[in-house]
Amino acid sequence: MAQYAKPLARLVAEFERLPGIGPKSAQRLAFYVLRLSDDEARALANAITEVKAAVGYCECCYNFTDQKLCEICRDPRRDDATICVVSDPRDLMALERMSEFRGKYHVLGGVLAPMEGIGPDQLKVRELLARLTGGTVREIVVATNPTVEGDATAIYLANLLRPLGPKITRIAHGVPVGGDLDYADQATLIQAFEGRREL
Amino acid sequence: MAQYAKPLARLVAEFERLPGIGPKSAQRLAFYVLRLSDDEARALANAITEVKAAVGYCECCYNFTDQKLCEICRDPRRDDATICVVSDPRDLMALERMSEFRGKYHVLGGVLAPMEGIGPDQLKVRELLARLTGGTVREIVVATNPTVEGDATAIYLANLLRPLGPKITRIAHGVPVGGDLDYADQATLIQAFEGRREL
């Protein structure tokens, strides 16, 4: 049985490692790349290397950015008094799409998962505490996913942060329970935000 | 509403252009790339540029190869007397996976589609004719997809090549009509091959 030419086999293997890409899709993508012009293929390859070289974490909120501070942290029109805590930059972008929230964010980089060895030290919890020192923050909206771990993380943060002064709220369960924030529609997200309650 | 950092937005856009990748998948892939190590991201980018640089067409059968002749054309154990004609290198690989056929291939690079301006001159038909000059080819198995255009291409090739001597056969309709060769299971492909009949 004939094999793919080596560079082609390697590209198929690379695509297969991506999430949600099976062997058939990987093959289809590889053949698609072969049919691209040299410029188009180079643009794709460059976009991959460049994203790794240029994009890092915001020094304040740990969103992805290609500068020291992300677009939201740099924006003087955004309200410093409210911080919305999310587990992932994708959740931040999902909330931004509803165009309702005018405060700032804090990206934890995950949720508490003791079984997988993820405790507060593995998340950006210390960095969130540091943001409360000035006394400008009056409310922290915990917008972790409404899963067991997301809820546990919200309760942990509420217990940790409440003594420091700010009101701690949780987005309402307008977001389908067990679902993924990133996949919620905008109306659900707006409802969830408006229905937030103190923890 | 905040936007992605530019390099991230560009990578998402690049992934969105790939076949079968929607906005959500493109975003998921881009975030996945951000979490890869530098080496892993570079391996993916290199695989893309290298496949374009190193892989071209076999000078004999127009399969993809990184050498002058593809692995199958170079293989002295493969039978020169039978040529299986396919429209696409993916179909060739699908047939190879059944490990039944021991002849050689010819990749047309498409099928006749007059409405899209694809006639014999846009396919590797002339190159197929050239392979018949030696008189060693005794059978040509036309394994284009069993679609209207695939069938029309088979009939066209039969009329063109039959006067030159070789037996012209068509794979049997064991392959589901209207389906795609590349997605057929091996048992179906073996049946289709064994049930081939003269055109």
TrEMBL record, chains A, B:
GO molecular function: DNA binding; zinc ion binding
Domain of life: Bacteria
Segment forming the signal sequence: none
One GO biological process term: DNA recombination
Residue ranges that the Swiss-Prot or TrEMBL entry lists as coiled coil: none
InterPro entries: DNA_Rcmb_RecR, Rcmb_RecR, Rcmb_RecR_Znf, TOPRIM_dom, TOPRIM_RecR
Keywords tagged on the record: DNA damage, DNA recombination, DNA repair, Metal-binding, Zinc, Zinc-finger
Zinc finger C4-type: from-to: 58-73
Pfam short name (any one): RecR_ZnF
Domain Toprim intervals: 81-176
CDD domains assigned: TOPRIM_recR (cd01025)
Reported function: May play a role in DNA repair. It seems to be involved in an RecBC-independent recombinational process of DNA repair. It may act with RecF and RecO.
PANTHER family reported for this sequence: RECOMBINATION PROTEIN RECR
Family to which this protein belongs: Belongs to the RecR family.
Record protein name field: Recombination protein RecR
Species of provenance: Armatimonas rosea
